[in-house]
Amino acid sequence: MICHQIIMNNQLKFSYKYPCLEPGILIKRYKRFLADIELKSGEMITAHCPNTGPMTGVSTPGSNVMVSHSNNPKRKLAYTWELIEVTDNEPTWVGINTALPNRVIKLALAENLFPELGDYHEFKTEVVYGKERKSRVDFKLISETKNIYLEVKNTTWADGRVALFPDTVTQRGQKHLRELIGVVEQGERAVCLFLINRGDCYQFAPGDIADPDYGKLLREAVIKGVEILPCRFIVTPQEVNYLGIAEFIN
């Protein structure tokens, strides 16, 4: 997987390239990490499902899906479920692999894709932080002024054109918000980046129905200075392209 950047109309265009993906039909998802899929060839496979959440709205049997294949003989399952096509608004591909957003953002940070983050000269991954030093932030951006602690959240649930996070109760997500609030209180910058892994949403809001405590805490975090960066990406079986920032509905 690689990324490409080009300059068009004085704007930076960022894309993350998938390897060759194979099409199929989702039969069922079960035991959280498994999915039975019928490939286009007619072969029935069991693929790894790299998503621990309920996958609200993005795990409907009979949907078109895309899988990647690995030749690693040490893997128990050769295939990984990567994408699903939904029809909430119009036919739209959604990235369900929760390991992908950090890979995409790492490449995007290397290209200084987000002007909202300002100037930084390097960044580190999985940095220990927090009041008890028991948490790890996805990225720490090193700046001459204020360092930035950046947490990334994969966002796939939607209500119409509004992307929502989370789609279930997340104690871990609540903890991350509290830690980011602590970062601001210590004089640094804290950013929660929601990677909207589908191109049909123009707005972002907390998933209050799924986790009202998270929604309340997110709004509190914003008031206390945590920055929210809901980033829109359009997904195809070939690549992931950056579209810009979604409107945050507080």
Question: What brief labels describe this structure?
Answer:
globular, alpha+beta, 250 residues, six-stranded antiparallel β-sheet, eight-stranded mixed β-sheet
Folded structure, characterized:
Helix content is 15%, strand content 45%. It is built from three helices and 18 strands. The protein has helices at 100-110, 171-185, 212-223; strands at 2-8, 11-17, 22-30, 34-39, 44-48, 64-69, 79-86, 92-95, 122-129, 135-142, 148-155, 157-159, 162-165, 189-196, 203-206, 227-235, 239-245, 247-248. An eight-stranded mixed β-sheet has the order 1-2-17-16-14-11-10-9. It has a six-stranded antiparallel β-sheet with strand order 5-4-3-6-7-8, with no helix packed on it. A hairpin with a 5-residue loop joins strand 7 and strand 8 (92-95). The chain is globular. The chain starts with a strand and ends with a strand. The model is unreliable at 1-11 (pLDDT under 50).
Q: Which band does the percent of strand residues land in? A: over 45%
Average pLDDT, rounded to a whole number, is 93
Helix content: 10-25%
Identify the overall geometry: globular
Uncertain ranges: 1-11
The largest β sheet comes out as: 8 strands, mixed
Category by helix and strand content: alpha+beta
Helix count, DSSP H or I runs of 4 or more residues: 3
Question: Order of SSEs, N→C?
Answer: EEEEEEEEHEEEEEHEEHEEE
The strand order across the widest sheet is 1-2-17-16-14-11-10-9
User: What Rg do the Cα atoms give?
Assistant: 18 Å
Strand count: 18
Instruction: Give the N-to-C terminal Cα separation.
Output: 35 Å
